[in-house]
Amino acid sequence: MSAITRILPKRSLSRLVGKIMHFEGPKWWANLSIRGFAWWYNIALDEAEKAYNEYPSIGEFFIRKLKPGIRPVGSAWAVHPADSVITQAQQIEKGTLIQAKGHTYELKEFTMDPDAYKKWDGGFFMTYYLCPTDYHRVHSPVDGGITDVRYMPGELWPVNEWSTTNVKDLFSINERVLVEVQTDMGPVGVVFVGATNVGHIVLSFDEKIRGNQAGEPEYQHKKYSPALTVKRGDELGMFRMGSTIVMLYPPAFREKYAAQLNLGPSVKVNASLIK
Asked: Does the annotation mark 243 as catalytic?
C-alpha cells in the first residue's frame, strides 16, 4: 500500500476519476451504474431528492441533495456538518491536534492562519470522516457570518486509517479549504480536507474557489465584508468524492459544551452536536 500510494500521481488520478464519475453515457448506462453504485455502498435511494434514474451520472448522484425534511436541523447551538463517522474529538492543546494514536499535527500549519493559535488554542476539534455511503454535502454547524475562506493547495493522499497512521502531518499536507464563521462565541472553522479521488471541493456560496484544478494551484485567502450571513443547516459546499471535515471550535465553546457533546461515532448532518 505504502509504495504504490507514494508513487501514484494522486492529483492527476483524482481529476481523471472525477471525469469518469461524471461521464454522461447512454441513459441505460447511467441507470445501471447508479443502481450498482447504490447497491455496493448500501445507499438509501429513498432519501435522495430525485429518483435514481433522473441523475445523468454516478458523479451527479454522488453529490445528490436530500429530500426536504430528511435531516431536520437541531435546535442546539451547534449541529453536525455532515453525514459521517467522528474519528477524533479532543481539546486543542498547545496548538496541537490529534491525527491518530501517536500522531499529531499543528494548528497553524493546518490552517495557514497566523492568528490560529489565538482563535482556537484551548478550544475543541472534531474530525468527521465521510465514506462513499454518506451524503456528501456539508452544512453550516452554527449561526453566524462567513468572514474568511482560505484555499490551501497540497497533496491528495487518501484519508483512510492506513494514511492517518502512516503519513506524517497528513491533514496539513493535503489540499484543504477553511471556511471561517464568526459566531457569538468566537470564530468557528469548517475545514474541507481533500483526498485521493476527490474530483474537487466546491463551495456553495463562492464558485470561484475550487480544489484540485489543473495547472499549478496557488494559495488563496478571501475575506468577506460584510460577512455572509449563514444559519445552522445552510449548505456550505460539497466533495465530488469522499473525504474529511475538521471542525475547529473556540475556547468559549469548549468551556460551555465539552461535557455534553453528542460524538456518535456515526452522526447525521444537522443533528444536534450538543445533548
From this structure: yes
